[in-house]
Amino acid sequence: MSRVLEGQDWLTADATRAVMAALAAAGGADCARFVGGCVRNAVLGAPIDDVDIATVLTPEAVVKALKAAGLKSVPTGMEHGTVTAISERQPFEITTLRRDVSTDGRRATVAFTDDWAEDAARRDFRLNALYADADGLILDPTGAGYEDALAGRIVFVGEPEQRIREDYLRILRFYRFFAWYGRGAPDVAAVEACAALAEGVEQLSAERVSKELLKLLAAPDPRAAVRLMDQAGVLGRVAPQPESLTLFEAMVGISADPVLRLSALLPDEAEAVRAAALKLRLSNAQRDRLVEAVAERIDPAMSEAETRAAIWRAGRQAVEDRLYRAWASGADAGTVQRLLALATGWTPPKLPVGGKDLARLGLQPGPETGRLLKAFEDGWIADDFPDHGHEARLKALMARPG
Asked: Side-chain half-sphere of 372: how many Cα atoms within 13 Å?
């Protein structure tokens, strides 16, 4: 039975048609097909982020075809067969059909092929080995990808252990795709293979691991997938083994932020969190945020003035993260939500005085300036950031014995 993608704006868009027409002009009507996520998500009625294309044309032929059509090309991975076409400012990743020559669990040496079945056979999961032609006709070389997508089955193409040994990142990808698209019980063969080869993830670069982990944690509800990771011994190989998933499971219920969810998987101690973030090679901003989230506990029963003071000293993001952690740990939801609303709606004012104000009052520049400004700041915060009386406060501070 023929299946056709319908109602897909990306498929019929002028930018898409221009790229497919350029390739067809060089290699014939069936030389290029859409592949992977765009086809899978179209089948599921899910949003389409990227449009990827597979072709029998070599990378050099792709570049030539795009140039002939007046389209820009970017050689994003020529040695692996990938060229990015730019059509109406939109990128299209075009990859020549490939087969693996050798693999070491981290990277593969590939050879180009014109065999669609060979290309499908090297892909990770059957629902990702779906193709569609320029008119949206779906092609399913494994014979099960379409039904897998509809049923929420994440099943490896061929033998799971073989696919994993080709690239150990596929262990994490299994859990990520299960988190995003899986329904019901996971595929037994896949679960067993991931557990058997779990130590392989330690061969992967930290950047690949952290990118995959954060994508997994961004799923609407990654709890079942993370439980599977924990049971298989995979979770403890990519992050410090949590004593319990209780905080994480509660956090998923209140926040969709993948960094906050990661925080709930990490130890409740700043230096241990810093070490884990460094091991994962997270960005400096992500590392600092995770550390600040646990650097100090927050009391959800504090007053609004105390909340504003905490925001001034630690920053809005740190206070919000600490409040979410308190909420996930069992603090009263209404109390926390009130303080979160305050944190979101309040704009911290700038310190209203500086060294020039003290100089104008007769203080000679020097160490005393810094001491007095710090004393002013402490009192100003304690009084909940008044917007008046600054000169009187400075004079009173200057009059006090040092």
From this structure: 27
Rounded-to-integer distance, Cα 248 and Cα 263, Å: 8
Eight-class DSSP state of 350: P
pLDDT per position as a tens digit, 59-100: 999 999 999 999 999 998 888 899 999 999 999 999 999 987
In DSSP notation, 24-67 reads HHHH-TTSEEEETHHHHHHHHT-----EEEEESS-HHHHHHHHH
Dihedral sign for Cα atoms in the order 242, 247, 249, 253: negative
* Segments in the chain below pLDDT 70: 1, 101-109, 402
The pLDDT of residue 102 is: 59
Partner residues linked to 32 by β-bridges = 55
305, 292 contact by CB (below 8 A): no
**β-pair type (90-96, 51-55):** parallel
Contact 127, 145 (CB under 8 A): yes
Which distant-in-sequence residues (6+ apart) come within 8 Å of 281 by Cβ? 205, 206, 207, 210
- In 51-182, which residue ranges form alpha helices assigned H by DSSP? 59-68, 116-121, 145-151, 160-166, 169-181
Please state the pTM of the whole predicted model: 0.90
CB 68 within 8 A of CB 21: no
How far is Cα 93 from Cα 23, in angstroms, rounded to an integer?
13
**Amino acid sitting at position 120:** A
Q: Which two tokens stand for residue 47?
A: 């949003």
The residues pairing with 94 across neighbouring beta strands, listed in sequence order, are 53, 83
Q: Burial level of 346, CB count in 10 A (0-12/13-18/19+)?
A: middle
Predicted confidence (pLDDT) per residue in 96-147, tens digit? 999 876 565 566 667 899 999 999 999 999 999 999 999 999 999 999 999 9
Q: Identify the sign of the CA torsion 54, 56, 58, 63.
A: negative
